[in-house]
Structure formats: C-alpha cells, structure tokens
Amino acid sequence: MAVSVTGPSLTLSEEQEMIRQAAREFAQKEIAPIAPEHDESGEFPYETVRKMGALGFMGIEIPEAYGGAGMDTIAYVLAMIEIAKADVSHSTIMSVNNSLYCHGILKFGTEEQKQKYLVPIASGQKIGAYSLTEPMSGSDAGTMKSRAVLSEDGTHYIINGTKSWVTSAPVADFILLFTMTDASKGHNGITAFLVDTTQPGFVRGKKEPKLGIRASATSEIYFEDYKAPVETILGQVGKGFKIAMTVLDAGRIGIASQALGVAEAAYEAAVAYAREREAFGQPIGAFQMTQQKIADMKTRIEASRLLIYNAALAKMRSAETGERYSTEASMAKLFASETAMFVTHQAVQIHGGMGYSKELPLERYFRDAKITEIYEGTSEIQRLVIARNELGLR
Ligand code: COS
Q: Which helix (H) or strand (E) holds 223?
C-alpha cells in the first residue's frame, strides 16, 4: 500500500506537476544513492549539482532570458521538497543558489548585473552564495563589524572583515555580500555588493565540520583589502539591510520546503517499518503508542505543506502588489522546521536501534533536519518576526 504524502490541497498545473516528477525521478535515481557516502566524506557533490543546473533546478523562478527555468514559486517548492527528500545537502545548495542569490539579483540588480552575475548562476554553470552573518553577528544581523570604505577617487570600495557560516562559500563563484559602508547609520549603513571570488583580497577559510548537511560546503570568508568597483553594488548604498531581509523572506520558503522534504522521507520510512516490524506477535503499527506518533507526524507534515503553499502563493502575489510576505514565510519555516525535527525524531524512535544505525538513513535525516531550525533565521527569530508583524511593532 502506498503512503499518501500529498493531500489535495492545491491543484497543480501541468508544468508544476512536470517539475515535481522530474525532480522526484532525478532525486531518487541520482541523489539518494550517493547521499550516504557524501554525508560520510563531506565531499561536495559537484557532479549532481552540475546536473541539477542542466535540469533547470538552480534557477527555477528566474526567467529563461536570464538563464533560469521561468517557473513559479509553487514549482520551486515542489522541486525543493523532492530534492530534500533524497538529500538535504543537495537541497541546501539549491536553495541558496535559487532564493538567497538569484532572487536578490533578479529583484534588485541592473540589467548589466543580471547579465554578468545572474545568467551563469541561474543556469547552473556557476555557483552563488549569500553572506550576511559574522562571528559576532548572527540573529542580530544589523550589528556587523566588516567595513567597506569608498576610495578617494570614488570608483570602488575597499572591503575588510570576516564573514562566517557562508553556505557554498568553498565553491562559490559569486557571493552576495552585506557589509557596512557607514557604521554611524546602523541598519541604514549596510550595503550589498556582488563579490567575485576570483579577485584578490577574497580569502576562503577552512570548511566547517558540521553535525548534518555535511555535503553542503560551509566556511568563513575573509576580506583583505578586497576592491569592489561601485558597479558591483546591488541596489543602493545603505539599502543592504532591507535587501538582506527581503531575500531572506524568499529563502525561508526554500528552507521550509527542504524541512518538509526530509520530514516526508523520515515519515515514509517510519510507516513502512511500522507495518513490517513485529513485536509481541503483531506489527508495531498495531500499537496505539506507534499510531499516535504516526498520526501526529502526518498531521504536522500536511499542516507544513499548507503553510508552505500559503507562503509561496503570498510571494507570487507580492510580485504584483509589492506587499511583504514575511509573516507567511516565517510561519512556514517555523512550523516546517520544527515538524522536521519532530518527525525525524519520532521516525528514529519507531525504528529503535535501527534508527540509530548508519545502515539506514534515519540518523542522517535526524542530523540534517536540525539545521532547518537554525539557518536563515532561528525558530526564535521566526517567532519574533511573526509576533512583531502581528503586533505592529516594526
Ligand atoms: N523586508 C523588508 N524590510 C525589512 C524586513 C523584511 N523582511 N524586515 C525588516 N525590514 C526593515 C524594517 O522595516 C526596518 O526599516 P526602517 O528602518 O525603514 O523602519 C529595517 O529593516 C530594520 O528592521 P528592524 O528594526 O526590524 O531590524 P532588527 O535589527 O530589529 O532585526 C530581525 C530584525 C531580527 C528580524 C533581523 O535582524 C533578522 O531577520 N535576523 C536574522 C538574520 C538571519 O536570518 N540570519 C541568517 C542568515 S542566513 S544563514
């Protein structure tokens, strides 16, 4: 008997159904089999990431004219769920490329910047990253220490400082960087730059050894008198914080989707195991304690899906109205990431000793799920965003 993981909550278009199928087939055939060895070795999966680019998964919402697949946010979340279901690391690389990098350039970039910095990344020939966090500035993103100083002739900025926890930094060709051009102005002193990682003054730090998403490469980066031409400013000087936040709203929908993907993978494994595994003369699924777990897992998964679709639709409407969808994105990320932790935890428990063994992917799902409650804004930050918006405190 098949496990139903997609409720009739949204009628998909032919195009959306197609990308879901394509992502599912690719993920199950090419990503799932290599995920355990990349988790073990921590090696970046260049080959499958290149193929994801060829399939259009690295710039799903970017118009074809700029190298993307020209699809909508629902298509993006469907593909993300499928990729994450096979491997969260792959979906992390995909999410940063799509929403934290490409989305920002499409929204705020000039035509020239789009040609140079968007086309190669959206088409998957090159890899993009996003860099906001610093060693002493994570959740409190407005307090960064890195600095960009305008040259005397006004042609470029000299950037110095350290950024940390930069997803894909060890492999990125271009990075969307947020740094301070006028510290006296606080949030309004932050500016976004498009950084070319082949230029002098850009230095990569050591790769972070991580609990999960081990095939997605993360590192610190250092700017040592990096020369950023004024043409590489994204948007306007001093508008970087708002760009960073706008882009994170989009990113959070991607993270919610990857959380749902890993939750689905763990849930399907748990249901199959509960049907097969016997104890005290009957399948463990016949025990009410197991049934309670299954019911709660399934309910939270489907609620996550609805919140994700809701956020995706809000983002699509926002393209017309300009209205923010921060609350919808934060609710989706908050609920889906906590669901991913809940479901992977319960799935390990249902599997007992086997859930703890590296012979099955459950322990990897459990480790990978944790990051979704942390990056692109912790659960605490999502609650803060939702509550502030509801209370009119922004
Ligand atoms: N879209 C557009 N503008 C936004 C925004 C959003 N989602 N969120 C905030 N802003 C604007 C505000 O409207 C405000 O503008 P004005 O100065 O014109 O009023 C400005 O940005 C400052 O906002 P605020 O005062 O709310 O900033 P805070 O310092 O209080 O920080 C939070 C707000 C905590 C929400 C923000 O710092 C945040 O999201 N932190 C988490 C960062 C994160 O996710 N890091 C992970 C990076 S990726 S691993």
A: strand 218-229
Alpha carbon distance 158, 40 (integer Å): 39
Tokens 């690719």 identify what position? 26
Q: Give the predicted TM-score (pTM) of the model.
A: 0.96
Q: Which domains does the chain have, with CATH numbers?
A: 4-126 (1.10.540.10), 129-238 (2.40.110.10), 241-391 (1.20.140.10)
Q: How far is the CA of 179 from the centre of ligand 1 (A)?
A: 15
Report the nearest-CA residue for atom 24 of ligand 1.
394
For residue 47, how many other CB atoms are within 10 A of its CB?
10
Q: How far is the CA of 384 from the centre of ligand 1 (A)?
A: 10
The tens place of each residue's pLDDT in the chain, 394 residues long, gives: 444 444 446 899 999 999 999 999 999 999 999 999 999 999 999 999 999 999 999 999 999 999 999 999 999 999 999 999 999 999 999 999 999 999 999 999 999 999 999 999 999 999 999 999 999 999 998 899 999 999 999 999 999 999 999 999 999 999 999 999 999 999 999 999 999 999 999 999 999 999 999 999 999 999 999 999 999 999 999 999 999 999 999 999 999 999 999 999 999 999 999 999 999 999 999 999 999 999 999 999 999 999 999 999 999 999 999 999 999 999 999 999 999 999 999 999 999 999 999 999 999 999 999 999 999 999 999 999 999 999 999 6
Kindly give, in sequence order, each residue whose CB lies less than 8 Å from that of residue 295, ignoring residues fewer than 6 positions away. none
φ, ψ for residue 17, nearest 5 deg: -65, -40
Q: What is the residue with the minimal CA distance to atom 10 of ligand 1? A: 242
Q: Is 373 a catalytic residue?
A: no
Of 220, 328, 363, 376, the active-site residue reads: 376
Biggest distance spanned by C-alpha atoms of the chain:
82
